[in-house]
Amino acid sequence: MDASIFAIQPTSAEPIYRQIVEQLRRLIAGGQLASGELLPSVRDVAGFHAINPMTVSRAYGIAETEGLLERLRGKGMAVAAMHRGTQSQAHRLALLEAQLADVARHAQELELPAELVLRRLSKIMGGS
Amino acid sequence: MDASIFAIQPTSAEPIYRQIVEQLRRLIAGGQLASGELLPSVRDVAGFHAINPMTVSRAYGIAETEGLLERLRGKGMAVAAMHRGTQSQAHRLALLEAQLADVARHAQELELPAELVLRRLSKIMGGS
DNA sequence: CCATGTGTATTAATACAACAATACACATGC
DNA sequence: GCATGTGTATTGTTGTATTAATACACATGG
């Protein structure tokens, strides 16, 4: 697997290691990273994105603690076998729940009608 | 105005002073805080939410720099006169744009169909 | 065996957030 | 005038988060 699977934004307020962990969570849950698949090495990812290897290692370590990844000694990190294939839609939707709740709260503070927000989001998602 | 207008989450990763600034932005843009309205004093807010007065003062100071608030010497802080009434829907929707883009990106990584996400968000917003 | 590839423990540097304790400038109202 | 109410500047301390630099242990493959 190529080091380019991750979309790192070094300028973002969100810490790099957390960006990686969260993308791993979603890519695995969505099935874009298949079970058993070998991930790019920490040095590959670090070199490609010009970040420190330890930052990547930290992300991989957290993902392993969460049970997302498995460590293959001498080989590297792979998607855990437990996570065979794609999770259920309900399970994946749950990963968006908190973010959707935030959107709803902010929309209410902005006194924006729900229909308007939904139309806008629909347009953004459709165009991707 | 009561000190309870702010919904502070001390455990959140987002800094308290920034929570306050962002809520001010939205509440003013949405018209829930009317122009000229007097805000709760820093000591009131700090006491009510059990946080440090200087943290509130910092938030008010930033909001003043942004032109959201006006300082009334000896009285306190008030919503700036410039912000008379509610902003246009387009202007308010723009404040949600970045967050909606994030939702779209995450949904794609999760391989969730747009309709499912929209239905879920609609339910959350409707129930509020 | 040994070069090369894994991941990572350790230490340090830097920055940030929040709190605490003062003290100050200003306006209001008795 | 003076007590009381604003916001704020200042200084210091504490705890934490993030990233970086270095060195190490281990497995693989010839």
- Per DSSP E runs of 2 or more residues, the count of β-strands of chain A stands at 2
- Radius of gyration of chain A (CA) equals 17 Å
Proportion of residues in extended strands of chain A:
5-15%
Please give the CATH class of the largest domain in chain A: Mainly Alpha
CATH superfamily of the largest domain in chain A: Winged helix-like DNA-binding domain superfamily/Winged helix DNA-binding domain
Structural class of chain A: mainly alpha
Order of strands across the biggest sheet of chain A? Answer: 1-2
Structural overview:
The structure is a homodimer of 128-residue chains. Chain A is mostly helical. Chain A has 2 domains: 3-79, Arc Repressor Mutant, subunit A (Orthogonal Bundle); 96-126, no CATH class. Chain A is built from 6 helices and 2 strands; from the N terminus they run H-H-H-E-E-H-H-H. Chain A has helices spanning 16-30, 42-49, 53-65, 89-94, 97-109, 114-126, and strands spanning 69-72, 76-79. A two-stranded antiparallel sheet of chain A has the order 1-2. In chain A, strand 1 (69-72) and strand 2 (76-79) form a beta hairpin. In chain A, helix 1 crosses helix 3 (53-65) and helix 2 (42-49) packs across helix 3. Chain A is globular, with a radius of gyration of 17 Å. Chain A starts with 15 loop residues before the first helix and ends with a helix. The relative contact order of chain A is 0.13. The mean pLDDT of chain A is 90. The structure holds a DNA duplex (30 and 30 nucleotides). Chains A, B: Keywords: DNA-binding, Transcription, Transcription regulation. Chains A, B: Pfam families: GntR (PF00392). Chains A, B: This is GntR family transcriptional regulator.
